[in-house]
Amino acid sequence: MEEIINKEFLTELSDCIRDQNPKKTLELLSELHPADIAEVFPKLELEEQSYLISLLDGEISAAVLLELEEDDRKKLLGQLSAKEIADVLITQMDTDDAVDVISELSENKQGQVISQIEDKEHAQDIVDLLRYDEDTAGGLMRKEFVEVNKNWTVLRAIREMRRQAEDMHEVYSIYVVDDDNVLLGILSLKKLLTTSSNTKLEEVYNNKVHYVTVTQKDVEVANMISKYDLMEIPVVDELKRLQGVITVDDIIDVLREEADENYQLAAGITRNVDASDNILTLTKARLPWLLIGMFGGLGAASIIHGFEEALAKYTALILFIPLIQSTAGNVGIQSSAIVVQGLANGTIQGKIVKRLFKEFLLGLLNGVGISIIVLIISHFFFGTSYLVSITIMIALVTVIVNAALIGTFIPIFLDKRGIDPAVSTGPFITTSNDILGVFIYFMIAKVILGF
Predict the structure, then answer these.
(1) In the structure, what pLDDT confidence band is assigned to residue 271 with cuts at 50, 70 and 90?
(2) C-alpha distances in angstroms, 289 versus 33, 273, 294?
(3) Which of 145, 173, 244, 328 has the greatest number of beta carbons closer than 10 A?
């Protein structure tokens, strides 16, 4: 839609809004998807955004609002009254989306909006969901789903399903419960259509169903949906009573947020920030790891300083300090990145010792290959003696193996203690390997060269 949403389009749209021309305004937006309309909103004044929200069809307005960035959505919501938010937006949303929007409001305005919702059942569902933490299954689930009782006949089930599905956009699964609302299983649509209308559902439902509890973390839910290729998963309470469902579109958002957070942690940013955040927030997020990196550099410098006399004698060793540091850092990040990814998707299994041995062999193989190349270059291109070149070679192999082991062990160690292993990548691994790499380098040189 880039060819449509250009400067001329925005100018014409603003003119229509300023002239209060609803017909022409809607004509301009009629060919756009809600996601495309959402891209237009940040380019308009807040008053113009408010006008569009009130002008668009309720379902489209709700979809546009959900597509907006969180900061843009908060600003727009601040321009709308509690009644406008309730009537125009919340009533058009599924409960999980409605909760996401309402939770961004102040507590006072949350109460005002909820009190303005005419559908009291919808309002109660929203209130129920607001009590769950947003990073749990309860915070992700929606209350719109189809459930049938095991004692119903097929004929009654079809009639009840039609009623329940009226206000739903999609129906992925049919859940079977008992009189206490305990989840028993799922019902196949094929079974429903091919079974006699007088047959009871307890005779035809499938009791093999994957589910999560309301307190399970969103990442665990994402892993389960991904593992079993589910479009939807039911959520139950401690007594296995059906409380709601989580659909795959909500999980995509979770995975995206998790990936963004891990990427920032790996880059040495200690909190979830956006490029649009103020300078103070960005500084607080970046400074801690930069300070760690600074002290790591000072540590490496102090090690080098301790071998100052030896370096005066073997000046060629100085040339390869950057190589030792960068190689150690890169190997450590490679190893930790693979482990962190494996821990996140559940593919890292077995004992730590087995994983470390595998990384030891991998590091040894890579180290030997790189070191042979460095040996040739250091001797024939830099003119270093064979003894110094061999020293560099042995040190490089040792540093690479050490970095691979550290990059593997630390994420697993942190994960087993309930700490996000993503914090181990990036500056942490790089800094630790820089210091150890330089130390190993000079210790091996001291043993071989005898200084």
Answers:
(1) low
(2) 42, 15, 8
(3) 328
Length of the chain: 451
Alpha-carbon gap, residue 236 to 297, rounded angstroms: 51
Listed in sequence order, the residues at least 6 apart from 129 whose beta carbon sits closer than 8 Å to its beta carbon are 95, 96, 99, 138, 139, 141, 143, 244
- How does DSSP classify residue 91? G
pLDDT of 114-154, one tens digit each?
999 999 999 999 999 999 998 899 999 999 999 999 999 99
Measured CA to CA, the distance from residue 89 to residue 82 in angstroms comes to 10
Per-residue confidence band for 364, with pLDDT thresholds at 50, 70 and 90: very high
Cβ neighbours of residue 321 under 8 Å, at least 6 residues apart? 304, 438, 441
The conformational region for residue 334 under phi > 0 = left, psi -120 to 50 = alpha, else beta, is alpha
Q: Which amino acid is at 158?
A: I
Report the SS3 class of residue 171: coil
End-to-end CA distance of the chain: 69
Amino acid 431 reads: T
C-beta separation of 245 from 234 below 8 A? yes
Tens of pLDDT, residues 36-58: 999 999 989 999 999 999 899 88
Cβ count within 10 A of residue 423: 19
Q: What count of other Cβ atoms lies within 10 Å of the Cβ of residue 94?
A: 20
| Structure tokens given for 384 | 């270093």
